[in-house]
Amino acid sequence: MNKSATIIVLFLLFAVQLFVPAQVIYQQENALDMGSAYKFKTRPIDPSDPFRGKYIVLNYEMDSFETNDESWNDYKGTVFVYLKTDVEGFAAVKTVSKTQLDTPDDYFLTKSNYNYNGMVKFDVPFNRFYMNEYKAYDAEISVRKAQVDTTKTCYGLVYVKDGTAVLDNVFIDDTPIQEFVEEYQKAKGPAQKNN
Length: 195
Fold this sequence. Notes:
Layout: H1 3-34, E1 36-43, E2 55-57, E3 59-60, E4 64-66, E5 78-85, E6 91-97, E7 107-116, E8 119-122, E9 128-130, H2 133-148, E10 154-161, E11 164-172, E12 175-176, H3 177-188
Antiparallel strand pairs: 1-3, 1-10, 2-9, 4-8, 5-6, 5-7, 7-8, 10-11, 11-12
Helix pairs in contact: 2-3
């Protein structure tokens, strides 16, 4: 291979390496700018699940759908989760399909885990919310407390477009998690902030 061919091959490899992450970033930014917003209600996480870094882990109420269709038995693979908004204003499953449907409804792509007694479980791919390292632990504590307190509502605001779903923010009673944590930390006092 001559020198100019080597340079062209290296340039193409470099371009491909830049294209893939750029495409992912573009899809996520496009979903945030042009996508539809859905509020996904959370539910408590198993308390034994340890804090895992500078993010909070969210567990959503909407993670399954019921079906009598036997073709879903033991199905593990990609699924298209089509959304609707329930009467309380939260995201709900309209339908789930193994193939893309010809419908204007918003959807996200994910994986099906298992089927048990007609209930097909699927992964919700936007279950981590990254934030400032000095607020992440207190945010997770605040979210856990809010999820078990029946007087509070905790949800993730997710933008959905063309199969891409991006978690934009987490709210407790319509207050963004950053603001909620700042109030929580003020109430704790400076001596206890990072304990």
